[in-house]
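User: Just a sanity check before I run the rest of the batch. Below are the structure tokens for the first item. I only need the designed sequence back.
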């Protein structure tokens, strides 16, 4: 899952980016509303974390603009104070949720999970395909009841494949949702990670779940 953080306060932006990356998300940061608006129009983000007080284009205007452009990405607004009017205006502008600064990082993570859950039609906290299960809260992965150790990036890739199981997932889709803006598409990094996952998920199992769709990409299915 890929997240855009629009925040002009460098310290907060760095802190949020670091924490989200540790939690397995791909993260891009924009330091003002205009840059954020440009990135939101260029990439397909799963969630946008948006500060209200921003240079060039404030959070309210940003939100109204992306909704006008029919951008469906869930938006979590960061409001500076416990200002009821700010929250009301934010929700009216098209935000899905808000968080008052200063906030506990755990709460931001929980709200991100909540908007992702809503976006995917109320998917529970566990994803499952056949005997493969992924717990979105503990980040634990099991195949046939056996614990599988994954790196943060492998987990992020598997989560994306499982959320879209049964569909053909192109390398472009993977790079857009699992890697951030610094990712270079002319490498074979994605294939390398798919192979890591195959080894951990499918090796030793008769039924393979990760399939290569020739000339198109990959699919995770029974
Ligand atoms: Ca700000």
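Assistant: Here's the designed sequence for the first item:
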């Amino acid at each position: 899952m890929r997240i855009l953080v629009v925040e002009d306060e460098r310290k907060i932006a760095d802190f949020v980016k670091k924490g989200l990356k540790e939690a397995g998300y791909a993260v891009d940061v924009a330091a003002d509303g205009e840059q954020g608006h440009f990135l939101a129009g260029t990439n397909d983000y799963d969630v946008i974390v948006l500060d209200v007080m921003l240079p060039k284009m404030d959070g309210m205007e940003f939100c109204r603009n992306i909704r006008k452009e029919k951008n469906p990405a869930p938006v979590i607004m960061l409001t500076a104070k416990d200002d009821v009017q700010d929250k009301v205006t934010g929700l009216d502008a098209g935000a899905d949720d808000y968080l008052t600064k200063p906030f506990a990082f755990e709460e931001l993570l929980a709200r991100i999970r909540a908007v992702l859950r809503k976006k995917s039609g109320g998917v529970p906290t566990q994803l499952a395909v056949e005997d493969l299960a992924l717990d979105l809260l503990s980040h634990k992965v099991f195949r046939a009841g056996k614990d599988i150790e994954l790196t943060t990036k492998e987990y992020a890739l598997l989560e994306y494949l499982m959320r879209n199981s049964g569909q053909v997932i192109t390398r472009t889709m993977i790079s857009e949702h699992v890697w951030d803006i610094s990712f270079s598409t002319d490498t074979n990094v994605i294939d390398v990670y798919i192979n890591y996952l195959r080894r951990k998920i499918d090796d030793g199992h008769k039924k393979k779940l990760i399939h290569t769709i020739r000339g198109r990409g990959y699919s995770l299915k029974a």
